[in-house]
Amino acid sequence: MSETGFPLTRRALLAGAAASPFIAGTARAEDEQMVIATWGGDYANLLRANIDDPLVIPQHIKVVQDLGDEDPRVAKMYAQRRLPRGADDVACLQAVRAYEVEASGLLEKLDVTKVPNMAHVLPNLRTDFYAPHIYSPQVLIYNPNVIKDPPKTFTDLLDPKYKGRVGVGDVNYFYIMMAAALATSGDPTRVNTADAQALAMKLNANGLRLYPSTDAIGAGIKSGEIDVGIMWMARVVMWQNAGIPVKASFQNEGSVLYMSGMVVPKNAPNKPAAYKYLNAMLEPSAQRGFAEHMGYLPTVNDAPLTGKIGEQLAMPDPAPKLFMPDYGVLGKLQSDTSEWWKKNMQRA
Amino acid sequence: MAAAVSRETRQGAAAATFLAPATLIVLVMLMAPLLLLLRFSLNRYDRTELMIETVTGANYLRFISDPFYLGVLRTTLIVASVSTILCLLLGVPLAYRLARMQSRWKTVCMLGLVLPLFIGGTVRMVGWMILFAHGGVIDGITRLFTGHGMELMYTSTAVIAGIVSINLPFVVLTIQSTMETIDTRLEEAAGSLGAPPARMFWRIVWPLALPGTATAGILCFILAMNAYATPYLLGGPRFQMMAPLLYWEFSTNNNWPFASAMALLLMTTTLVMTACANFVIPARYRP
Question: Which of A24, A77, A243, B93 is paired with A117 by a 20 to 30 Å CA distance?
């Protein structure tokens, strides 16, 4: 003890101060870093709140979010395909885009021994290169204040009483075409058949409103611009929670399942951390968090939903027909379908 | 004499030395991406390989032989031309008034003109969306007075209004700076010789302001030809212009060769139109 009664001598204090950066540096060096390429907004915030902070950071992994839209994310994956080390360890993709990049050989085959929670993934959602994160059935939506007899099939939307009152998201064109294919042939992958295209054109001729974003459909219902549309069940729940008058009606012909998940690029610089992230994403607490805030269904069998969200996402009785499309087949058709949509549906 | 020549040579060499690095950087930064685009545009698209290296003009042929793409180019040209004409019609009187303004309000007016440039174009478009939307300000007011709404959202009117609002400050500032250089004594002389104001403007101010006006028009046209956020947000999916279509081809379809060809065709069309505009102006007034 020093004579002044101060527990540290000046020399010791200086020495400590000089050493502190090295101590901090040592602590930082123990934390490894990983990059997840994902959508921004609510999705990124929920990743942070339900996966990064409670489950990944305690494993001494610093998570960096690379925010952006899906298209540029995929373009970046293609651009970096020849590099030995890419920029991202995990990329969030819709199923159809994941199958597309997998067909191009850009994805790592997932090592399930490193992602133990993959064992809980629902069997119909399981693949060896894609960790499904959330999914939701595509449904017909309507404003219950205006529509008393809700539409039950895709062809109901062709009724002249709905002229100019039906809205869909232009960005969801592929899923609209899947619904048309399901209605005409019972097979959601037959998006490029003349029948499916003719049905979509009939819908277009009935004054279909194309919105540039998914959120714009909710705004359209709220403002009274449209009364019916096609959307994921998850969005219906979100909009209901936001006070928008909207309800879901399952199509008699069945509902296509929208699915979003995560992949590991072949040239991911930190694959061990990426696997830990995927495993955390499949934890029941993380899955429930996304269901409660975004209305998507858990992709695992050990995260049952209870309370209000359980009621909102409960399937009607009798149970609707749900179709998990063969995204492997659809991935090959997307380019042609998007070209057809642009030239015929948008330009009409 | 020889000493003077030698000094000029030395000065020339010094100037070249100072200019060389900047010129080189600009050339590399400008030319390298363009050359890369040109190379990409000659490749062939493959769904899984993305691009197969070859030398083919198929992408250019596809564009010029498909009525859909030519239609989009035509729409882009019409929107850019109409926006440019409107900007000039609104911008010339505004610029002239500002140039001749002497009061302290001139600073306030200039600030009012420049202030929108401090806000991003996309943010301003969101403002227009609130005005144009179903149940929005314009729709609400029209419904109040006429009983019928007015939906401007996702129309060509909305897109042109948006582009004019973005380009107008550039046009006014460019023309105003030219008009500031016109000697007011020339106008006074015309007036003292009996020319009414309109005749004085057309015979004195307009010809002298023509180089600046042409520059403003060209600037506006180039900006309008390459507009992305405005047609995307205010035009909606059914209103197609070149820049959003090009981006869609690049990102959604991953067809980089065709997107590169589209980019070069858009650039070439813009350059050709700009050159044509230059020829329309009498040689003695060209900038």
Answer: A77
Same domain, A300 and A326: no
pLDDT tens, position by position, A287-323? 999 999 999 999 999 999 988 889 888 888 888 999 9
φ/ψ (deg, to 5) at A255: -120, 135
For the cut 50, the answer to whether the pLDDT of residue B220 exceeds it is yes
User: Residue A348: which of A209, A227, A239 has the closest Cα?
Assistant: A209
Query: What's the structural domain count of chain B?
Result: 1
Question: Does residue B137 sit within a domain?
Answer: no
Cβ contact, residue pair B255, A335, below 8 Å: yes
Q: Are the C-beta atoms of A129 and A263 separated by less than 8 Å?
A: yes
Is residue B136 pLDDT above 90, yes or no? Answer: no
Among A198, A194, A177, smallest CA distance to A335 is for A177
CATH of the domain at A194: 3.40.190.10
Residue B237's pLDDT is what? 92
- CA dist., res. A192 & res. A177, Å (int): 8
Phi, psi (degrees; rounded to nearest 5) at B101? -70, 135
Find the chain A residues whose C-beta atoms sit closer than 8 A to any C-beta of B.
Answer: 69, 71-72, 74-75, 78, 81, 103-105, 170, 210-212, 219-220, 223-225, 332, 335, 338-339, 342-343, 346-348
CB-CB neighbors (< 8 A) of B238 in chain A = 210, 346-348
Tokens of A106: 């850009």
As a whole number, the mean pLDDT across chain A is 89
Q: Which of A8-12, A248-252, A307-311, B234-238 has the lowest mean pLDDT?
A: A8-12
Complex ipTM: 0.80
Structure tokens at A260: 């979003």
As a whole number, mean pLDDT of residues B108-130 equals 88
